[in-house]
Input
Amino acid sequence: MKALTFTLLAALLTSAGAYTVQKGDTLYSLARAHNLKVEDLRRLNNLTSDNLVIGQQLRFSASEPLAPASPASSAPSGFTLTPPPAGSAAAPTTAAPVPVPERPVSLPDKANSVIVKPGSHFAIGGVNVELPSVLSMGDAFVVRLMGEQAQNVVVRFPSELGEDVRQPNEALTPYGAAGVYLVPGRVVLGKTTPVIVELTLGSEVVRGIIPLRPRPGGPVVHLRLAPQVAEKLTDPGKAAEDALVNKAYLSRGLPRWTKPFTAPLSSQPIPGSFGQSRTYTPGSPVVYHYGADYLAKSGTPIHAINDGTVVIAGNYPTRGNFVMLDHGGGVTSLYFHQSRLLVKVGQQVKRGDVIGLVGSTGIAEGAHLHLEVRVRGEATQPAEWFNRLWP
Ligand SMILES: [Zn+2]
Output
């Protein structure tokens, strides 16, 4: 499959001088495939949007001719909002979503740096460090630090550099008490290369490498949104809505929860809904679905998945009536498409509190809850959080 992808890429490149965007391509996957950063690809092609359109021409170096103006994309900016409608409207195809070739990790040599084996425990300045032994895209995880100096360790994820991710390689200080400190991490959807964790304590620097297990991607699901729903994708209020949410993702601070996370509804989410590759209208770009969708009757109470502060509660064009809770620690949860909101901005909620009722506002065809759990703004698999204090 991978070999076929490469062959296809090469053929497309040599025949036209520029690359023609295929079904499943994302700016991120193409940047990875060509050892470029997403921003390089944007600059080389004068892109004003991260959304690609099938058939669009791209170049990967300044010497390749730039194709005529790319079709302007008016598609959703990645977060996506509806379950496949019941019946035959959602037509899965066999196209593979987002092929991303592996790239070997090469790090510049750095004094005092140690590359540790995956899954091993190691120490820095007397602080014991535990990392997960393997991860998949969409995972949330924690770096666990134990020892007197644990709270003085600075943690970064340098593998995020070059990823299409918010605040890559941010310097993070651990949260905790009693000699056990944690830093949450996220594996962005689309990632296939190892996660690199860098720990700094005084002059000592240690790096850990966590391999990535491929996550079996389902087929691309092609939704055909009704015109009156699809037009919300280009609502003039969408940019302000996204800006509000993006600003709220920047919140950090200490975790405000003390008990395990819990599900928002008693029903189970639609299997495979988190991380699904989708299109919304015929020919629109393939995008990831960043939440888990729960089918439920309109009016079903929605419960806060943990303690937090209400940072957004209002009606917006694409997410509909939605609530965003800031749980501290860079962790937020979002509840879309509600029929009624029962909390206000600034309110403190407790785990299990009813924050609103299920509905079908925003980009939704039928009543459901779209739940997102994000780490520093990047979507993680919600189910991984339930019944645990940390993923
Ligand atoms: Zn959804």
Remarks:
- The chain has three domains: 2-73, 115-210, 221-385.
- Confidence is low (pLDDT under 50) at residues 1-16, 64-105.
- The first strand starts at residue 19 and ends at 20.
